[in-house]
C-alpha cells in the first residue's frame, strides 16, 4: 500500500483517534510522514512517524485506513 497526503489512518488500540497525513519528506535518508492527529475530544496535534512504521502497522492489521469518517466537526 502506498501512503499519500490526505489519507486518514486509525489504529485498533485507539479507534476514535484519527491521523491525517499532511506531509511526506525525507530526512537524513529516511522517509518521514507528518500527520495531524485529532479526535472528538482532542485538539489537532502534529506527529511525525517513520514511513516504515506505518507500513508495518498496516501490513499487520494494527493500523487501518479510516474509510467512513465524515468530518471532524
Write a brief structural summary.
By secondary structure, this protein is mainly beta.
Structure notes:
With 73 residues, the chain is mainly β. It has one helix at 51-60; strands at residues 8-11, 18-27, 30-38, 45-50, 63-65. Strands 4-3-2-1-5 form a five-stranded antiparallel sheet, with helices on one face. The longest helix is centred in the C-terminal third of the chain and has 10 residues, at 51-60. Mean pLDDT is 88; it is low at 68-73.
Kindly state the number of beta strands.
5
The geometry reads as globular
Summarize the helix and strand pattern as letters. Answer: EEEEHE
What does the main sheet amount to? Answer: 5 strands, antiparallel
Radius of gyration (CA) equals 12 Å
Keywords:
73 residues, mainly beta, 5-stranded antiparallel beta sheet, 1 helix, 14% helix, 44% strand, globular, disordered C terminus
Please write out the topology.
Elements: E1 8-11, E2 18-27, E3 30-38, E4 45-50, H1 51-60, E5 63-65
